[in-house]
Fold each of these.
Amino acid sequence: MTRSMDKISDFVFRNATYLIFAGVLIYYGIQAPSFLTPESLVNIVKQASFTGIAAVGMTFVLLTAGIDLSVGSVMFLAPLMAGYVMRDLGMPVPVAVVAAVLTGVVLGSINAILIVRLRVIPFITTLATLFLFRGFGTWLTSSQQFDFPDEIRAFGLSGVFGIPTPIIVFTAVALVAHLVLAHTEFGRQVYAFGNSPEGARKAGLKVGWIQARVYIICSACAALSGFMLIAQIGRLDAAFGEGAEFDVIAAAVLGGASLFGGIGSAFGAVIGATLIQTVKLGLVFTGVNLYLQPIIQGVIIFIAVLVDGMREKQVLAKMKRTIRPL
Amino acid sequence: MGDLLAFEGLSKSWFGVPAVSDLTLAMRENSLLGVIGQNGAGKSTLMNMIGGIVEPTSGRMRWKGADYEPKSAADASEAGIAFIHQELNLFTNLTVAENLYIDGFPRKFGMIDWATINERTRHILGRLALDVEPSVNVGHLSPGERQLVEIARALHNEAELVIFDEPTTSLTPRETERLFETIATLRGEGRSIVYISHILSDVKKLSDDVAVLRDGKLVDQGPASDFSIARMIRSMIGRDLGGQFPERSNTPTTSAILSARSLSQPGVLQDVSIAVNRGEILGLFGLMGAGRSELARVIFGLDPHETGEIEIDGKPLAGGPRERIAAGLAFVTEDRRAEGLMLEAPIAENLALVSIDRFGKKPFMLVDRERVAEETEAMKDNLSIKAGNIARQPAKALSGGNQQKVVIGKWQMQSPKLFILDEPTRGVDVGAKYEIYTLIDRIAATGGGILMISSELEELLGMADRIVVMNRGEVVGEVGRDEFDRETILSMAFREVIA
């Protein structure tokens, strides 16, 4: 009896996000049937793609039991660099995208050097760079709004066969991340490191290099995410991306990434980001008081983290040291 | 046949304290060397030197006739040496195949070639007669199966020497049998093996040669056929040193302070009953992983137990550590620095930590600093803690022995009925040890009960009124002071009958 209960609770823990997702969709569908029209659903995914791209990158970091709080500032600073490349050097959009991502790589490398070489814990390192990166951007712009050339919006609002560009970029990022995580040596080593850093070291893995790459990937994704979002609005103000790290981390954790490392997937991040966006837009659709929305969002994030904690407890219970056969 | 692995004058000391000293030993090709020794005899340090985890202070190692100076675990693995540790080193979130190939996957177009690794893994698992799919997560396997996966990893790395460190600790008898068959298979393939174990009969049965370590030195070696289990135990037993211990100044009463009956917890304890009387020092002996600290944690309410009951002064103990401290328990843990002290905080604060509740001053129950200062100062004098200004000096500035006195003192402030002391003299120098022994004797003489856990049999022989021996989570024997005998106790701990 207890065994089948265990199985049920195990199933619920494993699929908590999907269950919540299904519940949310059904609820909104009943409340406002227009919510489930294709246009509305495409809009949800499009809006989710910005947080989603960054959440995919964040998943790499969470898999190593690390954290990156600086993504919001990277989302601000990287597009700004791309903006200078476009405005002052007259470069076209593709070059600007590359410039943004390269900026992300550089910023991620700064995080990586501090964490791997100087052994400052990720939380503190990225809290510091959160202020550092934004501060640098604020200094460059003197806190003034930065206007991008018009072509960027043309790019941002474009699409292929009716599919908005952000969704295509999001899909591509998620697919590549999935391939890297599930089917390359580096990806599997990220999982191994997250499961046991000491074990990874003893197995002769290059742990420093593994750890460095996840922060670089995370920042590069955040940079791309910021650029895609800026491409929608065409200007960058001083507060852009502030607090985005919470949405991004929440999306990754909702998608099943464990803050304790070793568990998570690229598709999970996609689901998590889409779920958050579904909840947000659904609240608008169903006409819920605007001021209640952050509360509901907070509750959902709390549930996700709670489930993660309970899951980790289960895992720990299984791993508890025994000194005699059970 | 030449020597596979040889040590020449190999030494390693930690801060001047030798862990392995001047070890010279050679191992033949395709042989099985059994290594035995008491806790702290230097086995782990030796293995860590072979494995590239620690660097020798002096001397050298030779591997297949050439100098061998591993700088990392990867160097050892590359040389063809694999370790099967007691605590397995597998990634539980990855599959069996991934665990084998984690340090280098065969690739196709940059992606992992799953077909190839699954097929090769299946082949290796087949050689070990392990019937699990390569794509199963290691987290789903039993301890015995995990160990076979670890051995599979060694085979995959083409290890010529496989070092087993206490491999049977968490295995069932059946799994142990299977392990021995696997070891025979490995030997059949021409591989050499180092087998470290506390189970002497296994060592005798499996080994070609036996090496005995004591205090970091090689004290006995020879063909296994020349070794009786009695000789193994004799060789492992330490030196004789008089005057290390104060005379016990009281005789214990027969009224129990603590009595624990039939404590069981799957995987940890099996039907453990233990009683400590007023004024008694009860020694708890056992090898590493025998379940002594685990028992202490259960008694103190840190870990759960499924069946059995614990009473203090005839009243059942319930709840967590908080309730148990209130009932009169005190626990000096084995990890003084991490669990026993706030290293950065002043000595006085450390001393007042447990009893801070007592120092509330009306009307707002704020801490009465003057009384804290008075009482902690009195405790400092009482225990002769060698410190200047205890309100200023942080605990980390004290020597190991004085730190331990602070830990004992913080409990004494509460006048507990029963002290659990887990390795109370670990990392304490000889002089300070004597002072701690005196302190323990004094607690017993004033009617307290003491449960003293130690890996040093000598100190239990010197201090305890009675010694209870544990092995694999069970109580396997009990010896009164007038019957103390090293060989009897050790053979219980090693669960052997002296032939």
Amino acid sequence: MTLIHEPDLGTPARQSEVLVTVEVDGKMVMVPAGTSVMRAAALAGVGVPKLCATDNLEPFGSCRLCLVEIEGRRGTPASCTTPVEDHMRVTTQTPQLAGLRRGVMELYISDHPLDCLTCAANGDCELQDMAGAVGLREVRYGYEGANHLDALKDETNPYFTFDAAKCIVCSRCVRACEEVQGTFALTIAGRGFDSKVSAGGHSFVDSECVSCGACVQACPTATLTEKSIIDAGQPDHSVVTTCGYCGVGCSFKAEMKGNEVVRMMPFKDGKANHGHSCVKGRFAWGYATHRDRVLSPMIRSKITDPWREVSWDEAISYAASEFKRIQAKYGQDAVGGITSSRCTNEETFLVQKLVRAGFGNNNVDTCARVCHSPTGYGLKTTLGTSAGTQDFDSVEAADVIVVIGANPTDAHPVFASQMKRRLRAGAKLIVVDPRRIDLIKLPHVEADYHLPLRPSTNVAVINAMAHVVVTEDLVDHAYVQERCDPAAFARWAAFVAEERNSPEALEATTGVSAADLRGAARLYATGGNAAIYYGLGVTEHSQGSTMVMGIANLAMATGNIGRPGVGVNPLRGQNNVQGSCDMGSFPHEFSGYRHVSDEGVRTMFEDAWNVGLQSEPGLRIPNMFDAALDGTFKGLYIQGEDIVQSDPNTKHVTAGLGAMECIIVQDLFLTETASYAHVFLPGSSFLEKDGTFTNAERRISRVRKAVPPKAGLADWEITIALSKALGYDMAYSHPSEIMDEIARLTPTFAGVSYDRLEELGSIQWPCNEGAPNGTPIMHEAGFVRGQGLFMVTEYVPTEERTNDRFPLLLTTGRILSQYNVGAQTRRTANVVWHDEDRLEIHPWDAENRGINDGDLVTITSRIGETALRALISERMQPGVVYTTFHHPDSGANVVTTEFADWATDCPEYKVTAVQVNRTGQRSEWQLDYLALREATTQVAGSSTDTR
Amino acid sequence: MAHADTMVHKANQIALFFATFPHDEAVEGVANHLRMFWAPRMRREIISYVENGGAGLHELADEAVRRLVPVPDAH
């Protein structure tokens, strides 16, 4: 393996149907009109010296190194800012150009530390490279003049340093912050010789910097350098893989020394991220080597016993014997499994196969149960397939962007940067959210409409928007007539046209101004290409599936599905939510969303797996807890999922787990769920195994093993071992063979293989005979189900109501620096930004309760109580409070209820009636939690803190 | 299912979604949902619940459950 160096062509690619021919140093090259001379030269194989230019930033023309001569033109224009013209003849090297470049370099080097041998960038410094390229041999100005060599170093960011003494003020960092990330945290302060990069006058950690790493990546010197590189030195080889965090699925180069990762660099050829990253993927990978990793299998008879470290053989053998015992005693259906969206497609496929073929039942479910299961139900019902309709790049063709119940700048930051770029270029923005999320007002971005609805009234809002579209005749009748079921459309149109669904009639219910709602609906319907992006603020409601169908209805009615720039786009939370659902993780369906009762499909699986399979749906996760409390469900295999922290009504979850006789947890750490486990199988991080993840745009990308599994086995190998011990042998020597089986059994994956993934980089399913290179945009020629199906979406108020005792509505969400239950990010320096979950509360609600910022407050719902510190914030609307759930001792899910989506049981996390009061102490649950945690995480004969 | 009220609540939620459909379509919609997504054990419980009066069940849910055929668990 070698270090992958991606070529830098100096300036971005241009799109044009007009091609022009240019001659560079006698070499002919044909490029799209608008291409820079620098890029054309690079494409012709001619490197022009440069410092301020890089191909993910617009040309700037400040460093004056890239000067060239062009036949027929006066002077020496900068090649980065000069567009090509047909038949242009360019010369990149003459004695005059060489002299000019050396002169420029002399000026730079006269004010630069001469510490190359001890510099962290030694071997990866463009300034050093350019000194060599221009043949710098002396600095005629000397080093004694005014300089910046004593400039202070800013080391406040946990992941990178800013050494101003090494800055050449090329502005690449500032431009990267603006153009790539869209945060505008950096600027050039001062003028002339006093010019310097500034994080808005603050230290980096106190500034608006979001630590995405774009500036560090852009820096051509050692001014901005990763601390990991300062510590370890330059990497010597790299492996291209896919991020293990959110559903954007960024491609990264894991840059290594030996078996140690020293840097994660976003991969420019990654189709989801185009070389960009966020603080989690770029920097927060230290959890993979954190001292809390459990590296030995462990077993115990009771959860109050200390864990006993054992061999893999003993752990697997014990787990299998327990499951056999349970099934012999309580029946074949008394056990089940849970797959994880943090694991690969191949691993989730194996777990569901183990459950169906090895356990002999369909009691398999996945964490998508608690996030995007309504997406699957709603989109399959209306459009015919359980997935988003677009690729991320589609947003670049959107004229109107609607964000509903999503906070992309925090939860999907890399896609948010792409979205913000489109908004800065002029696309309109509608935000439907109870909170004032950041996207509503950012530098050069301002929402045209913010509809601050009351939590739980999504369906009323979408019906009111549909009412406007239908009653104001904004329907795309030709589209509907050509593509949709006419009877269903007529029924739906009549329903939404009823006066009770008008914005005015629903204003008191939703809290949304009727005028704003009408304006937003008109903009969506008439503003050109309109794209809806939504998140868990849509799905995690008692009408989550209804709302997804409502969104699809609106998109179909306005002709906004089936081409670039439009669509219905669920923003998936975890890295492989889409994939885990695709792989047959739900109890009612095989891979590719085919119901277990479909005899033809089931027979195909039975033949392939050489075993009889059940034709009835198995238990969903909440049903498993209920059955456990009934005494009929006794064993659970949980791969990479922390249901105790992530699922609603913690007390009910733990009561269910406590009623089981054998719980097998396979994970990196002793999670909250592991406190209730009898067998712990140490899992592998995404850096330690081969496989694939499927992101929110249905893009299947390779996960490649960069280092060996720290505990000895990759997760897929553990499942195989458990299955074999249970008597069902699965013979795979590599995950590619699992993918081959998935492809044989799943029509939408028929054309997917590791060879094809190597060839294409990534593939968006469906990939089969009809679409051999995959499908970026779905439903282009017509809907997958045939005719698009409009569904009537009656608004049914949730039963979770406020009253005098519980007058506030609690809603939950995420923050940029932490990820989901925090098991990974809490074990990184990201805690600098978020070391505890806090309760956001509007100043009015706080004042009414005598609450000051930072006060400890109780949050009490009908089912539980916890305590958090208050954060007074005008982001909230009065009557609504908000918290995150990244820290286990916060107990956010101690207060959330078991109300859930009617179709899928996705919990109603977003709506809990609560009261908030000042307090002086943690809640009873929190105190009990700490004691239980202490008691259930002991390891016999070990002083290691595994918590 | 541990608690009858939870079961009734879930079934009624399903019924409320289909309540805007024509009657037969609505009943079949609820019944089909139960067949497709509820495990046999849960369906047996709600069948039994209806046989014992079905207190609190939405009329569509009640009627839909009467269309279900109990399926035994595998042993």
